[in-house]
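Job type: complex structure
Entries:
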Amino acid sequence: MKVNVQLREDGDMLRGKIEGEIDTFTAPILRDELETITIGKYSLIELDLSNVNYMDSTGIGVFVGFYKKVNREDGKLKLTQLSDRLTRLFEITGLNELMDIETLKKVELSDGNI
Amino acid sequence: METFDYIEIKIPAKPQYVGVVRLTVSGMATRLGFNYDEIEDLKIAVSEAVTNVVHHAYTEAVGEVVIGSALYKNRLEVMVADDGHGFNFEEIKSKIGPYTENESVEVLREGGLGLYLMETLMDEVRVKNDDGVTVFMTKYVTREQVKDNVKRIPTK
């Protein structure tokens, strides 16, 4: 069980990809990685969460903390490629109303059950 | 009395073992026939309860967390306690009142969204706070489309 964060500059924006499980054990690792970002350098920070396969309130806490920091420093944060599970977590906590979140677009395989 | 199988695990109150509990819960929930979303809900709810103990119950010495699970035909009942001892499931269950009448809810709410998520993702959540905190929660299996006389597809 671990979390992996990859950050890469793309023009004037920063693209990040987060992979793994975010719980009370891995949340501090994620928080430390996000701490290294110089928010003022980028017009937009975009974090791809498509490979986050588990997250609970400790993960929510990390993203809320980072979102507040980005706001304080006049930056812009976007979370992208959220799975249905992650989208649901952001919806039931009401965070989807506050933060810029984009759900993973799935390829339609069929109309009914697979 | 309604019969159930009881599984108890005890872990050190350390963050690195919350994932171990999650895997165990996932296995038990699969056994009972919960669907994917229900299993993911259970994993989060139980993790929240265990995380609360890890964060709040033992600020100095490292203690233990006991996770007792009762597997009924139609539901999973999980108790998470910070006393470090095994417990009598039926006895403790009978002592737990509605969480709204209990101040320990506020103690848990300090941790953030943990209890809110437990309440949202489980069918029932109750909290008891005598010596240490015990969280008791239930989730029912939803399989109304499956009739009792229909054979399950064998798992690989």
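Summary: The beta strands of chain A are 3-10, 13-22, 44-55, 77-82, 100-103. Chain A has a mean pLDDT of 90.
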